[in-house]
Specification:
alpha/beta; Aspartate Aminotransferase, domain 1; Aspartate Aminotransferase, domain 2; seven-stranded mixed sheet; 10 helices
Length: 339
């Protein structure tokens, strides 16, 4: 099995003075109304965190019982909880995708089998080994930006199999289409850090069958979700916030198409059919291009740390059109330089 740096993330690409197209978090962040709610909660920091209201808010947002909700310290905590609580006989991770699921499984001592999707058919989701009893897949997938049809995800379900779907970026898809939240035998992970720009606060949650939630809660460290994160969960689940998130998703979709159009005009191959707030590109000498972009003030995410990809791939976050125009000009300039 090829060796990849599963602990490498986009924040390691960012540096002082660089325009950030490496991290898939909306900028600037967070919105004023959320900052105000967080600031108002500062006087309560002497008390231990309580996620009761946050759990109720998530349950209401998804029309699920509270027993099927676990609030977490960012969606990433859920990967560690799953790896700790479960004892799979055959764990499968569908790649390319966010590397934390595999890293967490391996850290917990589990063997991992990889199912690698192909860029040649747009990273279309196919079969996984029939003996798999734990499957991880992203939707829309980081870094490919592919949105798998819910029907394809549901086809992975088996009576003796748990399918974990990382929907961390689904609120960036207008209408949140293709979600499998609430489906028996499926675990859905959600993040609030991307759309609302609070990656430093760590706020997310799990939606799953009650028995799974109970197993995860049993291994979750006490008070792992901070008071401010709990406040953010409540605020971001309100109807007004969901309406704003939908508008942001629509705007981001237009900005993504603008980025894709500009990349295509430069002869850069954009892979798949992007639906998330980022795109995956393939171009010769991508790693050298990435380094020259850094020298010209722009950070993008290397692709060769994702299983199934190599040094020809880069992930680029969607930004506003002014930033994209400056980035495209820099990209055109560095590609003209000698390798």
């Amino acid at each position: 099995m090829a060796d990849y740096d599963l602990w490498h993330h986009g924040d390691r690409e960012v540096g002082e003075g660089l325009v950030d197209l490496a991290v898939n978090v909306r900028l600037p962040a967070p919105p004023a109304w959320l900052r105000a709610e967080l600031a108002a909660a500062l006087d309560d920091l002497a008390a231990y965190p309580d996620v009761t209201a946050a759990t109720a808010a998530v349950a209401a947002r998804h029309s699920l019982p509270e027993s099927q909700v676990l609030v977490t310290s960012g969606a990433a905590e859920a990967f560690t909880l799953l790896a700790t609580a479960l004892r799979p006989s055959c764990a499968v991770v569908v790649h390319p995708q966010f590397t934390e699921p595999e890293a967490a499984l391996r850290a917990a001592g589990h063997a991992v089998r990889r199912v690698v999707l192909s860029p040649d058919d747009g990273f279309r989701l196919g079969d996984v080994p029939e003996e798999a009893d734990l499957v991880f897949v992203g939707n829309p997938t980081n870094p490919t930006s592919v949105l798998h049809p819910a029907a394809d995800l549901l086809a992975l379900g088996r009576p003796d199999r748990l399918v974990v779907v990382d929907e961390a970026f689904l609120d960036a898809v207008p209408g949140e289409t293709e979600s499998v939240a609430g489906q028996p035998g499926f675990v859905v992970l959600r993040s609030l850090t991307k759309t609302w720009g609070i990656a430093g606060l760590r706020a997310g949650y799990v939606l799953a069958d009650e028995s799974v939630v109970d197993s995860l809660r049993a291994v979750q460290p006490p008070w792992s979700v901070s008071s401010l994160a709990a406040v953010a969960v409540v605020a971001c689940c309100r109807p007004e916030a969901l309406e704003e998130a939908e508008k942001l998703a629509v705007a981001a979709e237009a900005d993504r198409e603008y980025l894709v159009s500009g990349l295509t005009a430069l002869g850069v191959e954009v892979l798949g059919e992007p639906r998330g707030p980022f795109v995956l590109v393939r171009l010769p000498g991508a790693d050298g291009v990435r380094e020259r972009l850094r020298e010209n003030g722009f950070a993008v995410r290397r692709g060769d740390t994702f299983p199934g990809l190599d040094g020809r791939y880069l992930r680029i976050a969607v930004r506003d059109r002014e930033t994209v125009d400056r980035f495209l000009a820099a990209l055109a300039a560095v590609r003209r330089l000698p390798a």
